Amino acid sequence: MLYESYQSPWLDDELRILQDAARKFFETEFKPLNEKWISQGKVDREAWLKAGEAGLLCAEMPTEYGGAGGDYRHETVIMEEMHRAGVGGFGNQVHSAIVAPYFLHYGTEEQKQRWLPKMASGEMVGAIAMTEPNTGSDLQAVRTTAVRDGDDYVINGSKTYITNGQHADLVIVVAKTDPSKGSKGISLIAVETAKNPGFQRGRNLKKMGQKSADTSELFFEDCRVPVSNRIGEEGHGFIQLMQQLPQERLNIAQAAVVAMERAIEITLDYVKERKAFGQRVLDFQNTKFKLAECKTEALIARTFVDQCLLKLMDGTLDAATASMAKYWCTQKQCEIIDECLQLHGGAGYMDEYEISRMYADARVQKIYGGTNEIMKELIGRTL
After folding, report:
1. Are residues 366 and 255 in the same domain?
2. Which residue among 66, 111, 208, 215 sits deepest, i.e. has the most Cβ atoms within 10 Å of its Cβ?
3. Is residue 1 part of a domain?
4. CA distances from 209 to 159, 160, 356, 357, 363 (A)
5. Looking at the structure, do residues 24 and 65 belong to the same domain, yes or no?
6. How confident is residue 126, by pLDDT bands cut at 50, 70 and 90?
């Protein structure tokens, strides 16, 4: 255990039982398949059904919609154990903690009944299509359009860097329903991908890290969907995105903290065994000082995100604080993993060592969910 006297204040006995169950599931069911998933660039489709059967999908969705009836703490426990097992390529963070809440908070009763139970079982995999080839963090500038035609919307445009894109059965598309209104003309529209001739998957993109996570281009060419697939009121999409982004950014920050802690743990194991100049690498003062710094910063990050989680639970987590958590924790994630890789020496550069993959996986954390530069801009507006 990395911390001798600290436990997250939101953990209780029920959550610890879930923690143990999730840990066993990811270690026994997913971890043995991880090398295969890395080589093929995506998890097996069956993995979603297995996770659904184990009750690890849509944990915070109410039981009447097929979920586990938990709250965000339950999603956190599952996400943390997934990352501790090294199977972060499984896109449940997007599926359960990002996509499903849009339906819960803004969807109609019919939409919730139609989609959430299938997401909870793994029958449908969810994705959200925000980013476009020329539009990253600036969501107001999206060019994808959804034009009303009778009882349908006709969607045209392209999206890129979409997590779960290869498997997605249900995609929330961020589109302009009225381009003349800027951010007030953005709507969220759900697209069921099966048997929709206007929808096409592009490449499963090759990435620096997170190689088992499918990340795709998606194309919409005269893609017709019923108006009843719109999530919430027309033109309210940007507001909905802004309301949900603090939870998404906190989720990224929490994943960063787990990665810091895991990096320190595996590095401690390595430097206790590895010898140089007749002594353990851990016995060098520089090693102790570096790991002391890393452990201190990881614990600071852990206490910060725990407080943010408590704020999220009571409805007081504001956008600026979530941005602070996302920017600072992902920055520290990259710094700490870099220090830990250095302490592995040449072995740290080898793909067979976990720290090497963690280094590559970490880099995107400072980019998605809004770049860290955008996070600082959002924080700066409160000064």
Report:
1. yes
2. 215
3. no
4. 20, 17, 10, 7, 8
5. yes
6. very high
Same domain, 193 and 249: no
Q: Which two tokens stand for residue 306?
A: 């725990």
The answer for residues whose C-beta is within 8 angstroms of residue 294's C-beta and 6 or more apart is 260, 263, 264, 267, 336, 339, 340
Report whether 319 contacts 312 (CB < 8 A): no
- Are 79 and 254 in contact by the 8 Å Cβ rule? The answer is yes
pTM score: 0.94
Say what the pLDDT of residue 158 is: 96
CATH of the domain at 173: 2.40.110.10
- Separation between Cα atoms, residue 345 and residue 372, nearest integer Å: 29
Higher pLDDT, 138 or 85: 85
Question: How many degrees, rounded to 5, is the angle at CA 111 between CA 230 and CA 198?
Answer: 50
CATH number for the domain that contains residue 319? 1.20.140.10
Q: Which of 72, 102, 124 corresponds to the end of one domain?
A: 124
Each residue of 307-327: pLDDT tens digit? Answer: 999 999 999 999 999 999 999
- Number of domains the chain contains: 3
Domain ranges, residue 312:
238-380
Task: For residues 251 and 337, state if they share a domain.
Answer: yes
Q: What percent of the chain has pLDDT over 90?
A: 96
In this structure, are residues 91 and 21 in contact, taking their beta carbons and an 8 Å threshold? no
Point out which residues pair with 243 in neighbouring strands.
none
Query: Residue 54's closest CA among 33, 86, 25?
Result: 25
So which residues are the catalytic ones?
248
Separation between Cα atoms, residue 162 and residue 132, nearest integer Å: 9
Q: Quick: pLDDT tens for 332-366.
A: 999 999 999 999 999 999 999 999 999 999 999 99
CA 15, 21, 27: angle at the middle one, nearest 5? 130
